[in-house]
Design a protein that fits this description.
The complex is a heterodimer of chains A (287) and B (110). Chain A has 287 residues and is mainly α. Chain A has 13 helices and no strands. With 110 residues, chain B is an all-alpha fold. The chains are: A mainly alpha (287), B mainly alpha (110).
C-alpha cells in the first residue's frame, strides 16, 4: 500500500463513518430479529457475511421463520436485490483496468451504502482529470475503505444484536421493527406517481394473497407492482405528450414536488448551493 | 427447515446476490441491460417493500382488520408520517415502536 493508497483508503473509511451510525442499529435489529424468528445464532451471523444485504436479510429471515420453501426465498432474494444491477453497471467503467480478483472483492462489498459513497469519489476524480481518462489506481482504495468499514460494522452489529436478541422478551413486540424499517426504506423510493401506484398495487395484491400457499403472494405482489409501475409511467409519458393530464393530478403532483424541494436541503445539502446559483443566475438575467 | 436446507438456502441466496453485484462489472462493454429492464428496476424497491409491509399492518392476525383496535396499523400510519416528514430511519422506528407500545398499553386499559 503506497502512502496515496493509504490516505485514499482512510478517506473512504471517513466518508462512510456518518452512514455507519445509521447502519449499526439496523445490524443489531437484524441480529435480534433473526434470533426472535428462531434462526440458530451461527446461521444468523453467517447470513450477514454470505448475503451481506440488509433488506434481503430481513426478508429472508421472515420467510425462513414462516416456513417458506427455499425456491420462493431465493426468487424473492433475486427480486429484492435486482437493484444492485444498477450499481454494478454504474461502477463497471471505473473498474475495467483492475484484475479479476480485485473486481471480485469490490463487487462483494458493493452495498447500497458503499456504492453511494464510492461512486461520488470516482465521479469527482473523473471530473477533475477529464472525462475520458482512466481513474487513478488509488481511487479504488477509497471504495475498498468505505466497503470494508461497512462490512466490519455490519458483522459486529449483527453479533451485538444476536447477543441482545436472546435476552429480550417477546412481549416487547420487537418483530414490529421489521415493517417499521421497511416503511423507512419505502417512503424515499415513492418519489413520483408511478412509484406510488406501483407500491399501492403491490400492497393490495400482497394483502389479498397473504394466505396463498408457499408465500407466493409476496412474489405475485412484487411482480404486479413492478408491471403496474411501468404501465403508469408509460401512460404518464403518453398523456404528457398529448397535454391531456388531469388538472387535479397536476396540482397534487406540484404540491408534492414543492414539499419535497422544501425537505430536500436537509437530506442532500449538496443540492441547495446549485439551486441557489440557478436562482441568482435567473435574477441577473432579468436585470 | 432442516439445518442442511437452511445453510444451502443461505449460500444460494448469497451467490445470487453476489452474481447480481458482479454481473455488469465483468461483462462491461459486452452486455447492456435491455431498456425495458432498466425501466422496470426503478419500481423494484417500492413494489417489494410495500408487498412486505401491507399484510403485516392490515392482516396482523390473519383476517383483514381495519378496526381502531388494530394497533399495528395505527402505529404503521404514525411511522409513515414520521418517515415522510423526517426521512430518518431511526426516528421512524422510534416513533413507530413508541406508538405501538402506547396503543398496546391503552388497549389493555380499555
Amino acid at each position: 500500500m503506497t502512502p496515496t493508497s493509504r490516505s485514499e483508503f482512510l478517506a473512504g473509511v471517513r466518508a462512510e463513518a456518518p452512514i455507519l451510525l445509521g447502519v449499526a442499529p439496523f445490524g443489531m435489529i437484524y441480529g435480534a430479529l433473526a434470533i426472535a424468528a428462531g434462526l440458530p445464532r451461527d446461521a444468523a451471523q453467517a447470513m450477514s457475511a454470505i448475503v451481506f444485504a440488509g433488506s434481503a436479510q430481513f426478508i429472508a429471515t421472515q420467510l425462513i421463520a414462516t416456513g417458506t420453501p427455499p425456491l420462493v426465498i431465493l426468487l424473492t432474494t433475486l427480486v429484492v436485490n435486482l437493484r444492485h444491477i444498477l450499481y454494478s453497471a454504474s461502477v463497471a467503467p471505473y473498474l475495467q483496468r483492475l484484475s479479476i480478483g480485485r473486481k471480485a472483492l469490490l463487487a462483494y462489498l458493493l452495498t447500497d451504502e458503499a456504492y453511494a459513497v464510492g461512486i461520488l469519489r470516482y465521479q469527482n476524480g473523473a471530473a477533475s482529470a477529464g472525462r475520458h481518462s482512466a481513474p487513478r489506481r488509488s481511487e479504488h482504495w477509497y471504495l475498498l475503505g468505505a466497503g470494508l468499514a461497512l462490512w466490519c460494522t455490519w458483522q459486529l452489529s449483527t453479533a451485538a444484536g444476536i447477543f441482545l436478541g436472546s435476552q429480550m422478551p417477546p412481549t416487547w413486540s420487537l418483530d414490529f421493527t421489521l415493517p417499521l424499517t421497511f416503511i423507512a426504506l419505502l417512503i424515499p423510493t415513492v418519489s413520483d406517481r408511478p412509484a406510488l401506484v406501483a407500491a399501492l398495487a403491490a400492497g393490495a395484491v400482497a394483502v389479498i394473497g397473504a394466505g396463498w400457499p408457499y408465500k407466493t403472494g409476496l412474489l405475485a405482489a412484487a411482480l404486479t407492482g413492478i408491471a403496474v409501475g411501468v404501465w403508469a409511467e408509460t401512460r404518464q409519458n403518453a398523456s404528457r405528450q398529448h397535454g391531456a393530464i388531469l388538472p387535479g393530478f397536476e396540482a397534487l403532483a406540484g404540491l408534492v414536488g414543492k414539499t419535497r424541494n422544501r425537505l430536500k436541503p436537509r437530506f442532500r445539502p449538496t443540492h441547495s448551493p446549485s439551486a441557489g446559483q440557478d436562482a441568482s443566475q435567473e435574477k441577473s438575467e432579468e436585470a | 427447515m432442516s439445518p442442511t436446507t437452511l445453510w444451502l438456502t443461505l449460500i444460494a441466496a448469497g451467490l445470487i446476490t453476489y452474481a447480481i453485484r458482479l454481473s455488469l462489472i465483468v461483462t462491461w462493454g459486452r452486455v447492456t441491460p435491455p431498456p425495458a429492464l432498466q425501466r422496470a428496476l426503478r419500481f423494484v424497491p417500492p413494489a417489494v417493500l410495500a408487498a412486505i409491509i401491507f399484510p403485516g399492518l392490515l392482516r396482523p392476525d390473519g383476517p383483514l382488520n381495519l378496526s381502531p383496535g388494530n394497533t399495528r396499523l395505527l402505529a404503521g400510519i404514525v411511522a409513515t408520517v414520521v418517515a415522510w416528514r423526517t426521512r430518518s430511519a431511526l426516528l421512524t422506528i422510534a416513533a413507530g415502536m413508541a406508538a405501538l407500545w402506547g396503543l398496546q398499553a391503552l388497549m389493555a386499559r380499555i
